[in-house]
Amino acid sequence: MLFFTRYRNRSPDQWRRISASLALLASCTGCTSLLVPQTGEKAVRMSQIRGAPSYIMPDGSDTLHEYNEGPFGQTTWIGRIGADGRIKSYTQVLTAENFARITPGMPAIEVEKIVGHPYEISEYARQPGTAWNYGWRESNAFNVVMTIFMDADNRVLRLENGQDPRYSGGLF
Q1: If you write DSSP's letter for every residue of the chain in order, what string do you get?
Q2: Which of 2, 11, 52, 88 is the most buried (most CB within 10 A)?
Q3: What is the pLDDT, as a whole number, of residue 136?
């Protein structure tokens, strides 16, 4: 109510200028680049936008900066920083394509470089090894959990994809 009380006495010309400014802002196609680190920028830009990374991992001469979106988040972003201190890539890694790259026998460290760290690691009393759970949005429509089963040597045994029990019937 305060908004309308404060602005109700605007002239039609003022409203046209406000409307034009809002339309220009809404049509801005490059606006998202203000919030997403861009390839070629200095790595410090990623920290300015995203804050401190959840994890930092070496990968050859590059460094991977991982940004988890929390236990109910369904995205994990990994920024690849080159030896020159510039961003080489910045991508959302919880995708069907990336999970398809994970194969039986792959070491855990390689899994982390592809899809980041899981939101949960479970151990089972009657089965050696662990289960790594990754919540994600399959086809940008379904709330699912990809479980990667690891053996006692931290190598991939198998992957299973299923409905995410953290959401009410997978409807959100």
Answers
A1: -HHHHHHTT--HHHHHHHHHHHHHHHT-TTGGGGTS--TTSBHHHHHHHH-S-SEEEEETTEEEEEEE--TT---EEEEEE-TTSBEEEEEE--SHHHHHT--TT-BHHHHHHHH---SEEEEETTEEEEEEEEEEEETTTEEEEEEEEE-TTSBEEEEEEEE-TTSSTT--
A2: 88
A3: 92
Q: Domains of the chain, with CATH numbers?
A: 34-92 (3.30.1450.10), 102-172 (3.30.1450.10)
* C-alpha span between 16 and 19 (Å, rounded): 5
Name the phi and psi angles at 49, rounded to 5. Answer: -80, -50
Say yes or no to pLDDT of 152 above 70.
Answer: yes
More confident residue, 28 or 13: 13
Q: Are 76 and 115 in contact (CB under 8 A)?
A: yes
Residue type, 31: C
Q: How confident is the model at residue 19 (pLDDT cuts 50, 70, 90)?
A: low
Q: What is the pLDDT of residue 165?
A: 85
Helix (H, G, I), strand (E, B) or coil at 104: coil
